[in-house]
Amino acid sequence: MTSRSQTLTRPARRGRTRNWLPFWLILPTIIVLLAIQVYPALYTVWLSLQEREPSGWTYVGLENFKRLFGMSLFSESVGHTLVFLVGYASLTMVIGFGVALLLSRNVRFTGLYVTLLFIPWIVADIIAGLVFRLLVVPDYGLLSGLLQNPTLFPPNGLSVLTAVPPRPWFGDFPFPPAPAMIFLIMASAWRALPFVTLLLLAAIQTVPREIIESSRIDGANGWQVVRYIMVPLMLPTLVVALFSLTLSGMNGVGMVFSLTGGGPGTSTEVLSYMLYSIGWRQLQFGRAAALALIIAVINWLLIMGTLRVTRVNEKGSL
Fold it and tell me: Does the global pTM surpass 0.85?
């Protein structure tokens, strides 16, 4: 009787073990995610509601958020971030699309060009910012002689890193941007160009050649082929590329840190650099945590918007 009951319980135990096996296999991943994502996120929420006092942490509720929204620098940084994102994403997409079109024609040494295209991608943001800074440093920068020529840039030449921004056209909104912001946009676009170009090149190569050849037979010129055939077929990839650029530009701080340091004044202080400045320069960790949550909400909205646009495009293609 005992041996029979043991025989019956063995399959049940094997079944329970088999059911729990997937959980035990993914348990290390769950622990790592809890340690590096969930816990820091919850701690940031807690920290945003606190303020550091000599006696320890004090609960202040939403006071850190109120102080942020009441700072003129916060609204100014939002404007700088918007100008930077629009300029950075637009410039990178346009140049990346043009380079991808050239590479898709199978010109000579295409493999060499693609290899050279990887160089900006493997350079860290800090290093890229330092290299571009050395180009325009007064007196000994590689481009300083050209920029400080009063004939080209009257009346006294142009110092990119110290020139004050022009008078805004729309109230307090920082447009047109300072020369340092324009240079920052160009440097950031150079850094992100390889990723966008390779992404768009892969999308171009998936466009059926038969459709392009048929349109040319019907009399379509090059611009019409790109506008009415290639762009609609590449739209999901274009959305993904634009989303990636916006997200990286929103959260990137290395280029700003090493190239302009937020200056001159605060003319290149975007939200990500403001977060660094409040947290690690002023040591106001509660307010920095509140700003981090605001940036996280913006990132979440960008992700949701991209997913929604992608779904709409998929339904439209069906």
Answer: yes
Taking Cα atoms as reference points, which of 178, 180, 183 lies closest to residue 167?
178
Q: Which residue has the tokens 């001159």?
A: 264
**Most distant pair of Cα atoms in the chain: their distance:** 106
Q: List Cα–Cα distances, 78 to 28, 84, 147, 247, in angstroms.
A: 39, 10, 29, 15
Residue 68, token pair as written in the block:
């942020």
Q: What DSSP letter does each residue of 132-199 carry, written as one string? A: HHHHH-TTTSTTHHHHT-TTTSTTT---TTTPPPPPPSBTTB--SPPHHHHHHHHHHHHHHHHHHHHH
pLDDT in tens, 274-292: 999 999 888 899 999 999 9
- What is the radius of gyration, based on Cα positions, of the chain? 26
Q: Using an 8 Å Cβ cutoff, are 290 and 65 in contact? A: yes
Residues 6+ apart with CB under 8 A from 265: 164
Instruction: Tell me if 156 sits within 8 A of 149, measured CB to CB.
Output: no
Tell whether the torsion through CA atoms of 286, 290, 292 and 296 is positive or negative: positive
**Which residues have CB under 8 Å from 234's CB, separation 6+?**
200, 203, 204, 207
- 56-59 vs 50-53, strand pairing mode: antiparallel
